[in-house]
């Protein structure tokens, strides 16, 4: 069990961007104690482990049940990304399983003549994207642009905006990002 605790603690500490010294300082223990646990040389008591996890913060249940596979938390395979859109506009979210995401990265697929609707979108943050294929009509405030593959956009999302595929025949694909995440 101490090997599993060592692996999980090291993974969690690094995922939260904490050095051994910083975690030790937060928990009121020596960084040597953290090092010994992560080397599987010492097995912490449940109380000690709970105290360390409170500094992250994470419950014991979360600690022992989260998926440790790096690929699952780092890579989103094409067929694994959830479609948060619909049949007209598909929004495939990268890193959907990541907790506390600071940004939203999506592959957007606009079917011919699809658009985000008659209502202009307005929300906090910034967003940007690059047209991968097809054409995208972008309206921000009262200005409209026609973007071709390789063209990009970036704007403050507080300005009213909408997206539209002007083609009656071709699909438009965009890779976009926004922060803070809207999904």
Task: Give an account of the 3D structure.
The chain is of the alpha+beta class and 183 residues long. It folds into two domains: 2-68, Orthogonal Bundle (434 Repressor (Amino-terminal Domain)); 74-179, Jelly Rolls, CATH 2.60.120. 27% of the residues lie in helices and 26% in strands. The protein has six helices and eight strands, in the order ααααααββββββββ. It has helices at 2-15, 20-27, 31-38, 46-54, 60-65, 70-74, and strands spanning 89-94, 104-110, 126-133, 136-140, 143-147, 152-156, 161-164, 172-179. The strands form two sheets. The chain has a five-stranded antiparallel beta sheet with strand order 1-2-8-3-6, with no helix packed on it. The protein has a three-stranded antiparallel beta sheet with strand order 5-4-7, with no helix packed on it. Helix 2 (20-27) packs across helix 3 (31-38). It is elongated.
Main beta sheet: strand number and arrangement?
A: 5 strands, antiparallel
Low-confidence stretches: none
Morphology? elongated
Instruction: Name the strands of the widest sheet in spatial order.
Output: 1-2-8-3-6
Distance from N terminus to C terminus (CA atoms, Å) equals 37 Å
**Separate helix tally:** 6
Name its key features.
elongated; 26% strand; 183 residues; Jelly Rolls; 27% helix; three-stranded antiparallel β-sheet; 434 Repressor (Amino-terminal Domain); five-stranded antiparallel β-sheet; alpha+beta
């Amino acid at each position: 069990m101490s090997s599993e605790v060592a692996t999980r603690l090291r993974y969690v500490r690094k995922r939260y961007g904490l050095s051994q010294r910083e975690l030790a300082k937060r928990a009121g223990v020596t960084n040597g104690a953290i090092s010994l646990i992560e080397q599987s040389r010492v097995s912490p008591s449940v109380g000690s482990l709970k105290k360390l996890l409170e500094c992250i913060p994470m419950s014991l249940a979360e600690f022992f049940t989260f998926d440790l596979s790096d690929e699952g938390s780092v890579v989103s395979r094409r067929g694994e990304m959830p479609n948060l859109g619909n049949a007209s506009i598909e929004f495939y979210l990268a890193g959907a399983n990541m907790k506390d995401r600071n940004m939203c990265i999506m592959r957007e697929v606009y079917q011919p003549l699809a658009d985000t609707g008659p209502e202009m979108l307005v929300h906090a943050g910034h967003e940007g994207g690059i047209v991968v294929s097809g054409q995208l009509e972008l309206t921000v405030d009262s200005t409209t642009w026609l973007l071709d593959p390789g063209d990009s956009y970036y704007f403050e999302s507080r300005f009213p905006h909408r997206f539209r595929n002007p083609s009656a025949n071709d699909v438009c694909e965009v890779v976009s990002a926004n922060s803070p995440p809207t999904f």
